[in-house]
Amino acid sequence: MLEPAQIPEAPTASARPVTQPAIRKPAVRTGAVAIGASTGGPQALVQILRTLAGGKLDAPLLVAIHTPAEFCQSVASMLERESGREVVIVTTLQSVRPDVVYLPAGNMHLRVMKRLGSAYVESCATPDTIRYRPCIDVLFDSAAYVYGPRLMGIVLTGMGEDGLQGARAIAAAGGCVLAQTPATCVVDSMPTAILEAGLTQKSGAPHEIAAQILLRTVRQAHAR
Length: 224
Hints:
By secondary structure, this protein is an alpha/beta fold. It has one domain (about 30-220): Methylesterase CheB, C-terminal domain (Rossmann fold, 3-Layer(aba) Sandwich). Helix content is about 30%, strand content about 20%. The protein has a 7-stranded parallel sheet with strand order 3-5-2-1-8-9-10, with helices on both faces. The protein is globular. The chain starts with about 30 loop residues before the first strand and ends in a 7-residue tail after the last helix.
């Protein structure tokens, strides 16, 4: 609970003039949203995208969900159908665009890089020793390097601790980390690992996470 504001005593004639508080600078504008998930992830992401429907985002949505290669296209088609947003399976190096959902090609990682001041994404096979494909840590690490404090990282439902190392990288770069509330997960291992590490700024159900994305990335919020 927020503490009630303290009412200052009225200044006497000999009191010094009250110094006005400095105007707080606006929060760093979110440049990209990176989302990681595993078991139950497609359903949680659908809930988020449905809540985002109608809001034009100033940031791309970069997604790594542990998905067998043969289901990659069907997951992309479902997300596009349910969200009304463009969903791109990254097959070649390409620049990112706001309000677009990017997924890696089957059995590949999604990596972010910067060229000539612009952000690009690619699907890559390396590192090839990682158990999960796509690996959330690969996405988070690379996105944190490119976007720094302008990155929002989100860990949704899933088994294991993929995303923990990447969440540390996001936090170290000054970015924002959110996690799905364990009680709303199909499997809560991944978000629980993030929460127990003390890396999250907020946690919530998918629709509450979507509200945070809207708050930080909807174009109307930055129209002034």
